[in-house]
């Protein structure tokens, strides 16, 4: 800057003292001034870019560690904790139009459970949530989530989450204990209202009954590296689908690893690997909500044995100048592979009881792309595909249990467009060309989602 002032003073003095200064010399001086100006502008732009990149990386790490930004001081704990929860209410409603009867839905080669199925025709309350969370003190953070959803015309209330999590444990370690969504895969930890489509990927529907959650403990570690690296493990009770272990024992376990980072200020990526395993499963019954009410005379498939699932996921994001508010692209991919060994029984059959040995192999994947083309508008495409190779000595039992796919590969294509008036509301229109069971189905969903009250940042 001092050079610029000096140069300006020289030019001024020359103009005053030397009226006869040639045009060539004046042009040369102006050129030198322009060069100095451009150099300083380039330096300022470089500093601004570095600042944006640093802020983006900081936000990325903060979201992954899930730690609150402000921690109460221990000395003032009693005063601040008198009533400190952040309370939010997620309201979700939808209209669904389907060509086939949703009560007849089945996924060939997979035993449905949990909350899997197509839901109800017409108007219905979607997955609404009441969330309470807060720093309990300078050591723990707590969160509880109540879920409200429609089931055959009636509203069910479910305790989806209830856990505590350590704050500032140090050395990159975090411990979570209670009921929570497993870190298996990428989408599983994300709440339904943050999904990019109105329904779960087919592979999540077939393996987890839409989502995998359980009671247990999770340990995660974030390495002190420039590239984001997270390692973790979970020990679960195994009381929730797709396991069915003892309530007082350890029925399931998960290990996972995530690595990711930024490429400049406009690109970011994350790659994940995970493994879930449940041994000595007893009495895992099929029949999700789509099959209606069960009665004592209805034959119900039940699985006893061991189950293992391996998964890989990848996410890529792009935002011009690192700012996703106006425009961004998100590409998401997940692949799951499950192997099971045990016995399939048809409860309430016989006598004698209908059963067969079972050697199951089920796998599937989905890929989706979301494009925000305007500040308040997003559009997306998704493709799902599954396949299975299940064997047993009694094919009739496998057929009754819905586990004999007869070579059929379920698939589905989805397209959606949504309008976001603000960060607290969304209107979505979605179309599915569903070929996941023998009769193809055209499905239309019109959905609204709103957020009331304080709501924390979403995960990457």
UniProtKB/TrEMBL annotation:
Residue runs in coiled coils: 26-57
Domain of life: Bacteria
Keywords (A to Z) from UniProt: Coiled coil, Signal
Annotated region described as Disordered, given as residue ranges: 280-306
Signal peptide boundaries: 1-22
Name recorded for this polypeptide: Zinc-regulated TonB-dependent outer membrane receptor
Originating species: Cycloclasticus pugetii
């Amino acid at each position: 800057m001092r050079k610029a002032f000096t140069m300006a003073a020289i030019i001024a003095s020359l103009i005053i003292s030397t009226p006869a200064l040639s045009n060539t010399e004046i042009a040369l001086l102006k050129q030198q001034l322009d060069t100095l100006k451009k150099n300083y502008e380039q330096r300022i732009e470089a500093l601004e870019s570095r600042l944006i990149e640093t802020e983006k990386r900081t936000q990325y790490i903060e979201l992954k560690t899930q730690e609150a930004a402000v921690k109460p001081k221990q000395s003032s704990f009693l005063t601040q904790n008198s009533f400190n929860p952040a309370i939010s209410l997620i309201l979700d409603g939808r209209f669904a139009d389907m060509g086939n009867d949703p009560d007849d839905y089945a996924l060939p080669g997979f035993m449905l459970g949990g909350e899997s199925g197509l839901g109800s025709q017409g108007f219905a309350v979607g997955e609404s949530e009441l969330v309470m969370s807060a720093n309990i003190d300078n050591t723990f953070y707590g969160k509880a989530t109540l879920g409200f959803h429609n089931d055959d015309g009636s509203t069910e209330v479910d305790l989806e989450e209830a856990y505590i999590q350590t704050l500032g444990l140090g050395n990159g370690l975090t411990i979570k204990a209670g009921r929570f969504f497993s870190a298996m895969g990428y989408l599983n930890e994300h709440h339904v209202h943050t999904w990019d489509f109105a329904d779960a990927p087919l592979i999540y529907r077939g393996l987890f009954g839409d989502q995998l959650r359980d009671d247990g403990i999770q340990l995660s570690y974030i390495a002190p590296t420039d590239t984001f690296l997270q390692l973790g493990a979970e020990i679960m009770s195994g009381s929730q689908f797709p396991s069915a272990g003892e309530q007082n024992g350890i029925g399931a376990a998960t290990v996972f690893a995530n690595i990711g980072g930024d490429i400049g200020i406009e690109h970011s990526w994350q790659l994940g690997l995970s493994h879930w395993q449940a041994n000595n499963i007893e009495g895992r019954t099929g029949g999700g909500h789509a099959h209606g009410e069960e009665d004592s005379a209805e034959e119900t498939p039940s699985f006893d044995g061991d189950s293992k699932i391996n998964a890989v996921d990848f996410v890529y994001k792009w935002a011009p100048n690192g700012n996703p508010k106006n425009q961004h692209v998100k590409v998401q991919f997940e692949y799951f592979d499950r192997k099971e060994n045990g016995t399939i029984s048809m409860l309430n059959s016989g006598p004698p009881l209908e059963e067969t040995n079972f050697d199951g192999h089920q796998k599937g994947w989905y890929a989706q792309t979301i494009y925000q083309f305007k500040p308040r508008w997003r559009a997306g495409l998704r493709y799902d595909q599954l396949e299975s190779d299940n064997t047993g000595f009694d094919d009739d039992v496998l057929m009754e249990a819905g586990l004999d796919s007869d070579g059929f590969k379920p698939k589905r294509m989805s397209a959606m467009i949504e309008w976001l008036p603000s960060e607290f509301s969304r209107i979505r229109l979605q179309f599915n060309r569903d070929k996941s069971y023998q009769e193809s189905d055209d499905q239309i969903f019109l959905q609204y989602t709103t957020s009331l009250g304080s709501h924390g940042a979403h995960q990457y």
